[in-house]
Amino acid sequence: MLKKTVLTGIIVLITFILFLECGCNSVRRRLTITSEPEGATVYLNDREIGKTPISQNIIYSGTYKVRCSKDSYATQTVMHDVRSPWYLWPGVDFFSENFVPGEICDQQKCHIVLQPERMIPAEELLENANQLRNEAQNNGTLQSYQNVPFYQTN
């Protein structure tokens, strides 16, 4: 009888240890941001995280604001949607995070193409400035300021 109790205790202990071993594994989520050209400064939700190419651990699904900037290129901002894979859906995630052996890696990618910055020629810039000054002096208000080309970032 004592041997049977000890054997049952050992089996329960081994099962518990194996259960804990499986539970130590987790789901890792990463967002990899690349740009063309490489070496652009990356801001994730308005926080600088480094230069491209770069990978960042993320915790939540949802929309992330990704901004890339580099000298001589127009700054690009995109809203990147990170969706949950099926194994991270509520209910299923409990089993994938606690009972699946090994690590699950959810890799999300975001690629941003930077456009060369448009330089406005000095003559065009002076012409636009004179047009705005004349309009302001004549009317006291600026009516056509929306029609004047200017540098715009996305």
pLDDT < 50 stretches: none
> What value does the average pLDDT take?
80
Roughly what fraction of the amino acids lie in strands?
A: 25-35%
User: What's the gyration radius in Å?
Assistant: 28 Å
- SSE order, one letter for each helix or strand: HEEEEEEHEH
Number of strands: 7
Which secondary-structure class do the elements indicate? alpha+beta
Envelope shape? rod-shaped
Write up what this structure looks like.
- The structure is a single chain.
- This protein is α+β, with helices and mostly antiparallel strands and 154 residues long.
- The chain contains 3 helices and 7 strands; from the N terminus they run H-E-E-E-E-E-E-H-E-H.
- The protein has helices at 2-23, 92-98, 122-139, and strands at residues 27-36, 41-44, 47-51, 54-57, 62-69, 76-82, 104-113.
- Strands 3-2-5-6 form a 4-stranded antiparallel sheet, with no helix packed on it. It has a 3-stranded mixed sheet with strand order 4-1-7, with no helix packed on it.
- The mean pLDDT is 80.
